[in-house]
Specification:
single chain, alpha+beta, globular
């Protein structure tokens, strides 16, 4: 699957590109398992400043991954809960009006409509974000919930080795309380267990109490340490004055 917003890689394996289509905010992402050096961060921030970006965000990082960024002047933009499901007991949901099926490329516009309705502006997916979520792991499952031919929910779930990742879950607010979220989570967990995963991870915003309650009700338990998205403000005028 081709990523729709272009990323470039520098020798220290940091990836750079626009944050979900916003060309004033950059995404600076380390490769998992590779700790960026101070010189790599300096070069990346200089390059992004020269390109006119005004701010840089990281993806959700673990405390260990955050350390070099915090030491370089990044600050916490938003904290996230990290939860794990042991896959011993799977949730059961019955929703006779809604059917689940494989998501198709022709569903993408409808899926993004659901996503826009379910999340605030900062967290909403564009086409590139959805493509990233589907390409983030070696294998993935993309499923939609359909009510009378209308897409009303979806999930993207991935697997890497023995771990599953519930990358995205969204349900249209017009169908809240109908058991669709429970059904989609159950579908994701069942897929992961059938493929040999030992557990499944999911993250959610600290402010999203409703999602946290849903996940805990379905058997997820918080990890000892959460995640955080970090931010660094840039000054494009400084690049112009030295250019």
């Amino acid at each position: 699957m081709r990523r729709l917003d272009t990323l470039s890689a520098n020798p220290d394996r940091l990836r750079m590109g626009p944050w979900r289509g916003d060309h004033t905010v950059a995404l600076l992402s380390p490769v998992p398992g590779v700790t960026p050096t101070r010189s790599a961060l300096n070069r990346s921030l200089d390059e992004l400043t020269g390109q006119g970006y005004r701010a840089v965000l990281t993806p959700a990082l673990t405390p260990l991954e955050q350390a070099p960024f915090l030491a370089h002047g990044f600050v916490v933009h938003e904290r996230l809960h990290l939860l794990r499901h042991p896959l011993r007991a799977l949730p059961i949901s019955r929703h006779p009006r809604v059917r689940f099926r494989r998501g198709r490329e022709r569903d993408v516009d409808a899926v993004l409509d659901v996503d826009r309705a379910a999340f605030d502006a900062f967290w909403r997916f564009d086409r590139g974000g959805l493509a990233d979520a589907r390409a983030a792991t070696p294998t993935h499952r993309f499923r939609v919930a359909v009510d009378d031919r209308t897409v009303v929910g979806y999930h993207v779930t991935g697997r890497a080795g023995g771990l599953g990742y519930l990358q995205r879950l969204a349900v249209s607010p017009s169908h809240d309380g109908a058991g669709i979220g429970t059904g989609l989570v159950g579908d994701a967990l069942g897929w992961c267990r059938r493929r040999g995963c030992t557990s499944v991870l999911v993250n959610t915003q600290e402010a999203n109490g409703r999602a946290l309650r849903l996940y805990e009700h379905l058997g997820f338990r918080p990890e000892p340490h959460g995640l955080a998205v970090l931010e660094h403000r840039l000054d494009p005028a400084a690049a112009e004055s030295t250019g």
